[in-house]
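worker-03 picked up job from queue 'complexes'. Input manifest follows; two sequence lines, order preserved.
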Amino acid sequence: MPEIFYFGRPRRALLGLRHPPPVGERVHGAVLVCAPLLQEGIRCQRALWSLAETLAAAGVEVMRFDWFGSGDSAGESAGIVMPGLVDDIASAEIFMASPASSPRPRLFGLRSAALPLLAHASQCGEPVDIVLWAPALDGHALVAAWREQHRRQLHTAGRFLSTQVASDDDELLGFVLDRSLLDDLGGLQGRDLLLPAGSRLTLVQWPASPIDAAFVAAQRAAGVAVEHVELDGADEPAWDDPDQFETQLFPRRAVTQVAMHLAASA
Amino acid sequence: MNLFESPSTMSHVLAASADGETAHVFGDGLVGVISQGASHAPRDTAVILFNAGMVQRSGPHRGSVQLARALAGKGFPVLRFDQSGLGDSPVSTRPSTDRRQAELRAAIDLLARETGARRFVVGGICSAADNAFRVAALEPRVHGLLLLDGLAYRTAGYWWRYLPPRVFHPGKLWRWWRQRKTQADMANFRDFPTRAEAGAQMADMVARDVRLLFVFTGGAYRYFNHARQLAACLGKAARSPQVSMAYWRDCDHTFYRQRDRLRLQALVASWLEREFAAKPDASAADH
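worker-03 finished. Artifact:
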C-alpha cells in the first residue's frame, strides 16, 4: 500500500507517494517516477500507479510525486516553470536518497517528462541511470501539439455546444500557464541535453513510434550506454486524439512489460 | 524569497503543505487530501469531493484542487479522495453499494476527526455526483449534496428541444453523425437509479432538510437541456426551497476554462455560506 506525504520546502511542498516493497522482501533498486506534464499527467496517472505497484511487488522501491503547481502539490499551474520542474526532480531525488545509505534512484520519465528529466540529468556531475518511455524529445513539436490540441478542444472536438468559444490567452489544455514555460520547453531539444559520460539510458518505445536517431547518436557520442526496449503489439495510446482527450491512458500489457524489464534490470 | 534555494535546506516529510493541506490514507487504503484554510475560523460543515470518473482526486484540469482551496479559504474544510480502484486507491473486493457506503463513512470519520466538522456536504462531477446521490440517503451525517452534471432524466420537453434543431440544421446533423461513434455516450459511464427511485430518494432527502445544489453544463446536453427539466423529471421535491439549481449552457462538462472554474467556485462558496451559515443545535447534528 502506498504511503502519501508532503516533502520539500514548505513554500514549495510536493506531494509524494512511496510504493514500498512488501515487508521482508529484499529491496533491489529504487526508481523515481516522473509523470508527464499537464493533461497527459492526469491521463497517465493510473498507469503509473500500476507501474509503481508492480515494481514494488517485485522488490523495487518506488516514489512518485506531483510537480509543483500540479496534482496535489502546492502552487498553481501558472507557477510551473522550467527551472522549477528541474528543481522538483532534484528535490525528489534528494528526498528519496536519504538516508545516505539508500541507493541513488533510477530516474523514469514518460512522454513530456523527458525534457525536464534530461535537463536535470544533463546538469548532474556524475553518471545517471535514466529510463524514458515514449519520450517527447522535440520541445518545439511538443508545444505545437499542445497548442493544436487546445484549439481543437475549444472549436472542433464537441466539448462546447458552440464552436465560437474563447479562452484566455494564458490558458492551454485546461490550465493557466506562464508563458515562459512554453518558451523554455519549446526551445529544448533532447539531442542537446547530453547525459554525463558513463550514464545508462534506457529508451522504451512502441514499434510505430521510433525514437529520434540523432538523439541516440548524440548520447552515445557523449559516452552514454543506450539500450532500447521495444514494446509488444499495437497498444500505443492515441495520445493526440481530441475525442479521447479526457480518457485515461492505460496500456496494461505495456505497463506490465515495462515494469518487468525495470525490475529485472534494477 | 528564492523558491529554488539550495536543496540542502529542504526539510523531509512535512506535516502539511503551505496551503494547509494534509495527505491521508484511510479506510481500506483510500488516498485523500484535506484542505483547511489557515486564515478563516473553521466551520462545522465540511465538504467531501469524490474523484470524478476515472480521473484522480485532483479533478479534471485540477478543478477539485482549486475548488477545495477556494472553499477552505472560506472556512469550509474539504476532503478530496480517490474511490477504490481509481487514482491512488487500491481495488476493493467489496460489493458496489457496500463499498461506496463504507468509503463515505470512512471519509466522514476522517474529516470529523481532523477538522471537528459535524455536518457534511458530499458531491463531485458526473459519476462522482451519481455516487454522492446514491449514498447520501443512507448516511444521516450528510446535510448537503453538490451535484455537478449529476442525474437527470430525459423528458418530452427535452426531446422537443433536442431534435428539431438537429433535424433542420445540416451542420449540427453532420456533427452529431460524425461524433456518434467516436464520442462515448456519457450514459455509458453513469449509474442512475430509475427515475421513480431518484424521485423518491430526492423527496426523502428534502424531507430530511438536506440541501442540494445541482449544476448542469452544456456538456450534459445528451440528457439535460433546460433549467426547468429538473423539476419536470424529479417531481415537486425538485421545486422545494432546499434545492438550488444552475444551468450553464456555455460551459463544458469538466470546466475546461479557468473562468468557468472560478464561476463554479464562487457559486459553491456562496451556496455553502447561505445554506450552512448557522451551526445546528447538537440534537439536529446528531440526528
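worker-03 released lock.
Chain B touches chain A through 54 residues (CB under 8 Å).
Residues 16 and 22 of chain B are 5 Å apart (CA to CA).
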